[in-house]
Design a protein that fits this description.
about 55% helix; about 120 residues; Rossmann fold; mainly alpha
């Protein structure tokens, strides 16, 4: 994952994370028995060539459409994953995740798993 991150950040692509993802990371720190070490990991992550994308009204609109579609199909996904997917779709971004089981249900969402073997 680190090598892939370095390769992409050395190119012209923008690497960004969602403020929703940061919420999930900080929640994990708050629950952790190793909060200080995990907080330092987040600080290191954020110090890299990374933009933080705030969640907007347009992202919320896209997420709402995704939720309605998936619920109609009887294939809902988690609330935070809905927000992340909505934001990625709205910005036409490629989502980097190892949680493809939920995100693959979102039509039109481009995703990559940098942790998968061979990546």
């Amino acid at each position: 994952v680190r090598r892939r991150f370095a390769r992409v950040s050395a190119g012209e692509d923008v690497i960004a994370t969602s403020s929703v993802v940061l919420f999930e990371l900080w929640y994990g720190v708050a629950k952790s028995q190793h909060a200080k070490a995990n907080a330092e990991r987040i600080a290191t992550f954020l110090s890299g060539p990374l933009e933080v994308m705030d969640f907007t009204a347009e992202d919320a609109e896209q997420a709402g459409r995704i939720r309605a579609t998936l619920e109609g199909l009887g294939k809902p996904i988690g609330a935070y994953d809905l927000l992340i997917a909505g934001q990625a779709l709205h910005h036409k971004a490629t989502l980097v995740t190892s949680n493809s089981s939920e995100f693959k249900r979102v039509r039109g969402l481009r995703q990559q798993d940098w942790a998968a073997p061979g990546r």
